Amino acid sequence: MWLKMYILFTIITSLVCYLILKWMKKRRYCTDLKRLDGNTVLITGGNAGIGKETAVALAMRGARVIIACRDVDKAEKAVREIKIRGHNVNVHHMELDLANMCSIRDFCKTFLQREKRLDILINNAAMPSVLDWTEDNFSMCFGVNHLGHFLLTNLLLGHLKASAPSRVVTLTCSNYKYQKLDFQDLNYNLLPFFTYCRSKLANIYFSQELDRMMEGKGVTAYAVHPGYVQSSWTYHYSILFRMLMQVIMFMFFVPCEMGAQTVVYCAVSDEAAKHSGGYFTDCRPATLRSFARDAGVAKKLWEASERLVNLA
C-alpha cells in the first residue's frame, strides 16, 4: 500500500515539475514572414549560439548575411552550416575582434569598401562575467559588450543611413536591473557579475540614445533581452562550473533557436518599428526600471563613450 502511494506521489510530483519547467521555458515565436531579399545583414558573434540561429533565420528570408567574429576557423564552419540550414549561399564571414579598437576600425574600413549597403546591424557578440582586460585596457565586459559595439555602429552609421529604413538591434540582458552606471568608474572590473550587469545596462542606454540621434534619418534601434539561453558562454569557466551550469541550463534555459526569436522580430517586424528605442523580450516591448529610462544618463554615456574610443 505504502509503496503504491509512494510511486503515485513520485509520478504526480514529476509531472507537476515537468509542467512548471515547460511553462517557465515557454516563449513566443516571431510570426512575421517578411522577406529580406536584397538586404544586407551584419551579425557580430554570428558563428555560435543566438547569433548563428539569427543568421539562419535571416538567411532563410533571403538576406545577404555576414557574420563577424575573431575565430576564422569557427566562422568558416558556421558559414557552411548557415548556408545549408538557411537554404542560402549568400552567407559570408569577416574577421572582427571587438576587444581591439584597431581591429574594429580595420573591419569597418574593409566592410565599407566591400559592401554597398547595410540594412540590419545586429550587435550580438558578448563577453560573460570575466575579470579580464581588452587590448585597449578596458574591462572585457564593458569593452566588448558596449564600447566595441558603440564604435562599430558609429563607424557604420553612414551605410545604415544610406540604406534607410535600416535597423540596429543590440542584445542586452534583464540583469541590467541589478546595477547602475558609475561615471567615476565606467571601467569597473572588480566583481564580474556586476561588471556584466553594467555593460548590459549600457547596451540599453546606447539603443535609446542612438534612436534619439537617428530620429528622422531612417535608422531605428532596439535593445533585446533574448531570455536565458542554452549557449556556450560557460566555456570561459572551470569544468566543474560548466557541468553545474549545463544541468541548470537544461532545466531552466531555452534553446538558442527560441532565444533568437525576439532578435529576428526586432530585425523584421513593422510592429516593432513603432517602438524604436525600446526594450524587447519575448517578441514584444517590455517595461524598463525607471533608472534605465533616464535620457540624461544615456546622453552622458554616449559622450563618455565617444571620448573613450577616440571617436571624433
UniProtKB/TrEMBL annotation:
Pfam families: adh_short. CDD domains: retinol-DH_like_SDR_c_like. The chain crosses the membrane at residues 6-24. InterPro entries: NAD(P)-bd_dom_sf, SDR_fam. Keywords: Membrane, Oxidoreductase, Transmembrane, Transmembrane helix. Belongs to the short-chain dehydrogenases/reductases (SDR) family. This is Retinol dehydrogenase 11. It comes from Coregonus suidteri.
